[in-house]
Amino acid sequence: MDKCFAMVSGAAKVAGVYGDPVAHSLSPAMHNAAYAALGCDRIYVPFRVAASDLPEAIRAVQALNFLGVNLTVPHKAHGAKLLGNRLSREALALGAVNCVVNRRGELRGDNTDARGLELALRELGAASVSRPVIVIGAGGGAAAAVLACYRLGARRIVIANRTRTRAQRLAKRFPRIRVEVRDLKALRDRALIAGAGLIINATSIGIDGKLFPELAYDAASAECLFYDLIYSREPTAFLKPAAALSLRTADGASMLLHQGALAFQLFNRIEPPVDVMRRALMEKLGRA
Ligand code: NAP
């Protein structure tokens, strides 16, 4: 049965998320739990927006006086193009927008993915990354991972991606960061895996139930953390073999939480109740 939001009045303010698909999004659960806990007359709504409708949907943020909207797949890069010169430095660096913030009718594109991942990794004890990092993938999630790891002190970052040219383009985004580009065969390189302190999956591999490409899990050191940007109720295709070897693993639920809490702060200019948001998310993931 659909839930009722009893506290929403005629004066309620609205935030939301634009995606396609969007029905699977866990952001409404996190944001609405926060509004309920704070007793705010506000609501966070999922909107299914087709790629071709994004320009109009972004104009609607102004027209309908929304607090702001999150952008998720497939809108992040397109959102950055549409908001042109109204981007935060972070969104500009990542070439992607995950938050459109409405400040008195002025829209601004921001991105909380890198800061969200950085907070998630700090919570997991990776506050200082002294050993090399491997980032698998070269899309928006991988860009956020490169930036987060650099901020955590990583001085050697290897990007491994199926399409090498895309990884090269990503590396060029960060001229000040020492990044090496490899293809997915690098994941079989035992010396590379043995030296890594953090291996991040920033691809969408496994979402459709397919196996992860060959990776020398058994060469990894006991300190190495395997972090998957993907999150699900079940262990992900990337994390399963690592967990079977009792290696350290974490999925992207913690990144989702922190990028969402940072977005909450941007939309509402209210300190986010992170623990309330975490509980709502964990409940949805069957981990409460
Ligand atoms: P994206 O821009 O579409 O990039 C997808 C990446 O996956 C590319 O590097 C692509 O390689 C690779 N890939 C896809 N299918 C593959 C296959 N069959 N074999 C090898 N490589 C494959 O996506 P994104 O925005 O970076 O997101 C990546 C993942 O991170 C998604 O699952 C997304 O849900 C997740 N994510 C999670 C959070 C969070 O808060 N937890 C935040 C952001 C993203 P090519 O370049 O060769 O195509």
Overall geometry comes to globular
| Ions, cofactors and other bound molecules | NADP nicotinamide-adenine-dinucleotide phosphate
User: CATH class of the largest domain, anyone?
Assistant: Alpha Beta
Order of strands side by side in the largest beta sheet?
A: 8-7-6-9-10-11
**Class from helix and strand fractions:** alpha/beta
In terms of per-residue confidence, which ranges show pLDDT below 50 for 5 or more consecutive residues?
A: none
Strand content: 15-25%
Query: Could you please say which CATH topology of the largest domain applies here?
Result: Rossmann fold
- Total domain count: 2
Mean pLDDT across residues: 95
Elements, N to C (H/E): EHEHEHHEEHEHEHEHEEHEHH
Q: How far is the first residue's CA from the last residue's CA?
A: 21 Å
The proportion of residues forming helix, as a percent range, comes to 25-40%
Q: Compute the number of helices.
A: 11
Computed Rg: 19 Å
**Main sheet characteristics:** 6 strands, parallel
